[in-house]
Amino acid sequence: MVPRFWRKIKYRYDVVASYCENCGNYYYPQREICPKCRRKGKIKDAKICDEGRVLSYTILDGKCIALVELENGTKMLTEVCGKVEIGSKVRKAFRRYGEESEDGIIYYGTKFVPIESDKKQKA
Amino acid sequence: MRKVAIVGVGSTEFGELWDKSFRSIFLSAGLSALEDVGIGGKEIEAIYVGNMSGGKFIDQEHIAALIADHSGLAEFGIPAVRVENADASGGSAFRQAYMAVASGIHDIVIAAGIEKVTDANDPMEVLSTAIDQEWERFIGADLPAIYAIIARLHMHRFGTKEEDMAMVAVKNHRNAVHNPRAQFRKEISVEDVMGSPYVAEPLKVLDCAPLSDGASAVILASEEVAKKLCDDPVYIDACTQASDYFSIQNRRDILTFDAVVRASRKAYKIAGIEPKDVDVAEIHDSFTITEILAYEDLGFAKKGEGANLIREGETEIGGKIPVNTSGGLKACGHAVGATGIRQIVDLVLQLRCEAGKRQVNAEKALALNIGGSGATAVVTILSR
Amino acid sequence: MIGIVSYGTYIPRFRIRVDEIARIWNEDANAIKQSLGIFEKSVPDVDEDTATMAVEASREALARAKIDPKKIGAIFVGSESHPYAVKPTATIVGEALGVGNYYFCADLEFACKAATAGIQICHAMVKSGMIDYGLAIGSDVAQAKPGDALEYAAGAGAVAILIGKDPIAVIEATVSYTSDTPDFWRRDLQPYPSHGGRFTGSPAYFRHIVNAVRKLMEDHGYTAKDFDYAVFHQPNAKFPQRVASMLGFSEEKIAEGLLVRVIGNTYSASSLMGLCSILDKAKPGQRILLASFGSGAGSDAFAIYVTEKILDFPRNAQVWEKAKNGVYIDYGLYLKNRRMIR
Ligand SMILES: [Zn+2]
What we know:
heterotrimer, A: mainly beta, CATH 2.40.50, 2 domains, five-stranded antiparallel beta sheet, 3 helices, C: alpha/beta, Peroxisomal Thiolase, Chain A, domain 1, nine-stranded mixed beta sheet, 14 strands, 25% strand, globular, binds zinc ion
């Protein structure tokens, strides 16, 4: 699975989405054809904002898996490190997602963490 | 396009069938379908088999040919094909069989579904291959997690309660009591569901369908052939299928399964009916929230009001639109690739008035089979 | 003028108190706090490591510098807890930052001074015209065997120093003092380091720092009075205090940078974390003495002069703010977060 992970490193290590220059839509995760414009579309990589809000989430095996809505409306399924609620503001963080095995490669990627100031404001 | 009918149905019991192999499960479903219509088998012109993951569950691919062999039909050299669409494999295989007969290519075919899950170490891990491995599974989500995220937002936006979801499980267990092939023939209470541990918050163990072994088979024939074979054929008024964005990240609204909306609207149109004309339905309740979402997406309730149907008992046996009189995936069992066919079997029994204590008065029956987190939906409308 | 153009720090959010560790090993917490001058230490989350912290610190440095990541010509990551024994941490950082592919890159190891060596390399590369900007990173999830005295001190954190022209703080001079002194080591394939106990003191820490700093002063004509702040490697709070007095620096001059009390020894990031906390407060015209120490052994001494540019430089969130914002965990969670139990 090394090549499979490596191929997407750029999109995992940072929030890099696809942007269609023809219609102005953003897509995450990255895709190769714009579903709106099809062959007229012009897809290119675009780094998107570092912050978003929790649209919904679940707690699975003690981990928070959330659907985060980024500022431009792009939705991203991600792990959130820390306690959140629907609507909580979060920002990206570089973390480990796992490893191939004890002697295999380490899977790094983008997770999100709650923005502390947001919590304080609410309290 | 010709009219197509179902002339025979058969199914194994669903559950942990420790002493039965993949081959023997398949054979028993297939033989009971043949027996049901009263034919020997050499009349069958093609085999369509829904199976999600022979490869992962039992390390066996090429299973259509294997099945053709073990059912003795390799002798006649008929074509056999496996159809894979996660847990919509059965429904999808049924649709392929339906199209083959409707188009006139074949006159009589068998559509089956089978899954043998208990030979695998971690069946839920296999089922979770139905979601995006690179962008959903990679970050640690599995299939229950995706539905849990949907459930939480449904609760947040529409006021659906965990108790409402629990009531879906309670209803389906109650129905399963009278289904001799169901995995859990035991009533449960809302308290039982609420007290079961979280799998993925807010979904609990008893909100989730089990993963089961099982096989189901139906025999489809052209109207002309059907009339010769039996006097109570059940007609296929429509069989449609639609796709949606694979991952919830790309859905317009994660609380609507567009594939279900599209497939059902098209099916209603072809069958010339409206949602209110459906008398009985088998709905893919892989999770309790899935059934509530389906009420809305099939048009039984307005968006956001799905929970009202379960609160008011409308989907109980005796209600306005009984759903999952078989016990559904939750209580009858979810033999993944077999489920879509099993739904058809149970609806045929309802339409033939052979459903025993579960019997409802029905002219029009609807089946909804969903793949994974909703990227595939198959809707079938049957009538007497 | 070449020097520090930007800096970023990362301190993981969890803390464990010395009292909690002492409770497990039936030791006298007060005596330990007294002798080490450490009260608590930082602990990473279970999904954090040297690479993730290096990326976080670097992202802060880059955001503050407001430069295109593609302008970075070199990345050096100093650590003694690289996630891979073979395969660089620095490439992970480069990829996460979006530096492109044409950059000089290596992981460095010289116990706790690898990152200051990285600064020297970047400084020389900018000076020679090889690169415009170089990123020197110190990041460590400090390793300590459970029950070892080191366990009270071994913290986690990362610092990224961006070196280039037109800096917020000029590197006026740097000197290294190096010898072959095995005071602390970790053999290949061993999970935890070993150390020479009291041997880590005068023949190692004190001798190397004192010689490096004295040579720096001698060669460049400084006296202790020329420095407004001093910061030394911080294996505990006592060593830097003692070496400061040996070199003629008052307690006040080192107080600002003494983070070891609350986050422990962050190894490669240790002296640099102190430097960054000083830069958080420093005014133009002030001069800082920085002396790292790496076992094995060596010390890199620097004279750093703060420029007017620091006035417009974004310095929030400050290092002390990050250091004080911890969430306390118990020893069980500590073992889990450090992946010592799975
Ligand atoms: Zn487009």
